[in-house]
């Protein structure tokens, strides 16, 4: 018999943790957990305690004897871990508020994953994930790292390629949502269809086949602009051109709207910002109310309210992935892992998001093959943007950060983009030790966001 | 409900057919067949009739109502087929006798798959498989072509890449045998282990992992020189160097003995030839006695004697593959299919033999990733040899045939190799219309094998 | 002795032709021309006659006996040609006016080479260049095609890769201008420096070394924002970020301003348009006045006024290239030719603009080697854009045209971009037979530019 | 004015040095040398002194004031060097005798560059060249390293790729000889023809064009089996198949005989060995007599006798290359340098032997483009063999050495090849510190060559 499992969750104080706990409870019979360690930092202590108590109540309401331990001491938690999940957010939602407000005020997208915001999230996260990997090399050298900290693909590439921790898988809920919702539209069960995905995190396409080996992608394209399709609820549904999609013969992910309808997505984002501030600010309110609910000492299951956030199914996917590894299941999932040739137009050592077989060996990608020039060109520039972002995050080199900003299709390059880069650097000073020299110089030049919300956050030590 | 299946077997008069029939009987409940058409040519009519009657008796001994039809009219058979299997041998075993005797008499390997013999088998087969594909395009445009005519990888490459029939899968029993025998050696069940294969037909390697994700390839290497391992019985077991295999961290297939122990394999082959003639001649005797057994009107199952031939499990693998497609199973099998990046050091449109997921969509390769220079260099030259062979088979160009002979590691290049090439061309004149011009020229120069067995075969119209 | 040369210039009525004539006169001693055929179409007859007379007067003022023949009969001209130069403009400047006005009125770049305008220029030109190549295959199968019709790289790719005319070289004046102007800035002679260029037409970078093998690129970067550098006069000099350029260690071409300073370039372009209409309209005036000058029966040399147009040095580069081929010179020039590995991150059969050795064999690229992710990602998307453009031009498929528009970094994708695409299709109906079906459909939907200038041009049959 | 040049020649006691000196004398006017340092080791002191005195006499007979300094102190010599040439032979000709005798006695090729001997030469040389590069990094960080120690391509790859000394060029006389001799056959001057080479050292092909851009390769193929062609005198002229060469459209180098006529080359080599011992033994005699000539105090120029050795024109090529760098000449030469895409089927960071432009920047390869499967497959396995050889030389891993032996087309793999490997390891113990562990083990097993010549050499401390 295999030994019971020790799970460690970095960023355990996240409002998503109850979904993760629920996922483990559902799968206890196939995957007997002994301990769940929830790790967070000083700033997140209060939330961590609330989550820790709720998580323990959830387990106590089951027949299973599982201990939930909360700690601020990461090293202690990691010792002997079997699976480490990462869902932390450096600088919390306050950092995301800056990521989104500063570009928006300059009339650009503050998009938090692939846009300016996402690149800064990577700049802040990569130094921390490096420390985590270094700890793991010493304290739990056989553990798997299941990452769902965004930008998930970039972080996974840093971990596998740069910090050389091969046992890492990146997760995302976007493919999960597509595979849950699309079949309904054509009155099918997910189990009747074959899905094949390929691309990068938040930038992938898929093809769908029915049980008679017929390619029904074209049929699904016809429905793509309907409500309730595969696009996550947090993305504005600018209309896709069906002629464009048919010429590819592929279904895009929801995030492709930012690339195929740049203009509308930007206009809508600016409009929303003017009406109600950034999505991060809305999230902060949602989170506050979630934590009020979590505090209820009678609550012993995941509350319905959590489902409504954008990140639903993320954690369940993580539990499924962990179980597939533990039980050597050989099931098909879409995850971020090393390319190894699955997408021949990208380097074999790049991290890609593709349909994989998940077993005790980890994720084995299923090949996608050659792409047409349209998908290929976009994919290659997005991977290049990811590489520039990682290079900048590792080196702290300003020119390289500028490369990432210039090459990113969601940033309109030029003087204003540089201004945004500069203001973001200064605004995130606390979390960007690698850029210290440049930030000092920028501050001397008087660079600073004039946005009252940002000014206020910084006054309060963020 | 899906409609019942029509199977067509080209080369239906083969002595292997009873295994195929047995495989379909075993799987009838999951794969209801209505008709099996066995197709052969005039020269094979007698055998075809014997096989046809045995096959019908085998079905009649089951509760299932399946009709076996024998015919010399390929077009009639192909009409509306769902699956077409190819196991024909152009020129029958007599052609193989020439393939093996002519090189052997010049002190070279007559190896019938990757050696001189295999290249000539390809020269003879490619024009015929082209005709079959052309028929299929008209008569059964949705059918799958399951090829196990050797050289299986080369024929599959011709079909998919040159004749553009994408629904083709090539099969081989070598991986099957390895996965059946190796686990026993270390007291494991096949189901407890994860196998990953990559390479070309008769030229692949594999890695093995246990259920705890541990790479146990090294452990299996230690046993590789023992009897009863994964090497097919028809290959002489020259000793592998364990140091060489450990430096790769991979298990070779049995055919690698020809490449890692060239000298012993050649010496043994010549010795065997001197003692007992070629393997083809032995096979001819085995076949004759098998057909005597098949004639027995009371025989209604696959006779034990068949199992002892080299090609066991081939046909069962074919049935399993067909069922996996028909039932959209998503199981793991090792087949020849389009690379699409699974082995990044070969072109995405090359045919490779790799671990795949087999479902209604066909074969989806699982990536293997980068290779070390040793495996990579050998694989690249073998693929180049396959390409030269196909180019020569298609063009009938002598210089290109010479390229194939020169680059093939199992042929020692030079004047004598050219002599072998020339004699084989003349000896196979009947089946090589594409080389007509060159053969006429060679005959004028007086080129002809002086071997009495070859002379005799040719006198008799072969 | 080599036989005297027959030159054919398609689009011979161009205002640039006098520079070409001057270039041939300068080089007569090394390259004895017998005849120059200037070919044009009915619409350009008047200009052709003016140019033809001027060209003949230019030769008559030299000691050389060279005949200038003007004709509307392309086939007659091509017969036995040694070198064919192409500098035609399908639809003349009126077409360019539409290319630039329609996007500008929607607030987008009408950039005539890599932007929306450039893609439409390719849509119009590719069917015509195909006819020219087909004529050449019959009438002058050994001739060289020296293309300077824009978008030069795309047209050259169509000719070499799709129409399989290998003896084609694409030319551009941008590298010539850089190599003429940059050395002066640092008080050097061009001959003292080693230049290496790589990229695509209007999208390349270069490195510069001095005679002591020292890389002085960084030194030149420091001067890049000064007036009089390597940027063609027709491009607005938005400021480059020196930090960005230093992080690459490369000098960009002037057109990179559109990619590194998207926002300023767009704003400036719209502003200019509001002030003075499009550049095409200005060009039309310049041309009219040039032709007035050309009419002067006493003029027998290239007038000074021509030098001031954007395209200076183009024709001289063409003459130099022709002489290098004719005289097997082995000199170094920057041209568009087949990659063949010079830029490993692009396909070997792509057309690229790189430093080459020009000799009787044509252009042999000098390798550039691997690129960093920033340059690589941009180059790959630009090449993909070129490929989508060619695919759309060849197929007339609307979805593919939309791919080209969506992937082009100078077009902001979405509903408005589709509107621009649609209006341009309708506006250019006369020159886009391959898109006939879609244009008919668009017209039924009432798509049409409402711009009075465009409306007027169309009324007059353009 | 540039400063005068300091040349350092490692292995200065070589019998080839007078050609090098002659080359520098011829070019003094364009390349003013101040000092030539000849470096050797204790074992070569006597020869070094003889060469040093001859070299000084050669300079003294010219109007130029150049000082020749001989030394056993490499570090002292390297200080401030401008160009370092390497032509040393670890273990001298005695080592080569072992390299050739041991395989020959087992009936295999002792070929000293690409065969078993060449791999051992690499095993011995790579540790030493590593030390030289380390010294250079400290003592002459701007110097160029011009290598002509064999196997020249492998050594150059070790220097550039593994020891990261980019300013290194590898030289060989094989292309020089081809370009000198071939034109005569067709009554042309070298200067009238365009040559393009690509491949690896001792494994390359070339195409030839005349001054009218006509490919005359086929015409030269017709003459390839005649005496006095491009093959170095030390290679047995087994007949090439013209049909094979025409199918490629390429001229092979002389060493290709080993690959296209394996059998004859092996038989001839064994026969020669039986008649007259190894080529190394013959060379040793030639050398002894050369040094007798060199001792003559009246000799002050390169003696005719040197020309007759196999390595002629090597040193002159080195001088020409040095001058091209020093004078920023931009001339065309065939050298070993980093691929960078010139041969797309090999990695951009591999070292290849190709036509290059040589200037102050070093060697810039001219692209070759895609290859057919025949050339491609062979080239890829040869590069893989080189990589395995370097990996074994660096690691001292026996399994990896076995990889190199197994993959090498000139070694027939198997038990006997392993015996050769083992005997060579033991025989070269003195020069293979990296294999110490394995050699000790082999000696314990009693492995030793029984050849009296080898036994004798070892007794004498070699």
UniProtKB/TrEMBL annotation, chains A, B, C, D:
One of its GO terms (molecular function) is oxidoreductase activity, acting on the CH-OH group of donors, NAD or NADP as acceptor. One of its GO terms (biological process) is carbohydrate metabolic process. Keywords: Cobalt, Glycosidase, Hydrolase, Iron, Manganese, Metal-binding, NAD, Nickel. The record marks 112 as: Increases basicity of active site Tyr. Mn(2+) binds at residues 172, 202. It comes from the Bacteria. Residues 197-411 form the Glycosyl hydrolase family 4 C-terminal domain. Its cofactor is NAD(+). Binds 1 NAD(+) per subunit. The keyword Glycoprotein does not apply. Substrate binds at residues 96, 150. Belongs to the glycosyl hydrolase 4 family. Homotetramer. This is 6-phospho-beta-glucosidase. It comes from Clostridium muellerianum.
